[in-house]
Amino acid sequence: METKKGKLFVISGSSGVGKGTLLKKLIEKNPQLEVSISATTRLPRPGEVDGINYFFVSKEEFLKEVENSEFLEWAEFNGNYYGTRQAWVERNINKGKNLILEIETKGALQIKKKLPDSVLIFILPPSMEELEHRLRGRNTEDEETIQGRLHEVRREIECSKNYDYTVVNDDLDRAIIELEKIIKAVIR
Ligand code: ADP
Ligand code: 5GP
Question: Against a cut of 0.90, is the pTM above it?
Answer without folding.
Answer: yes
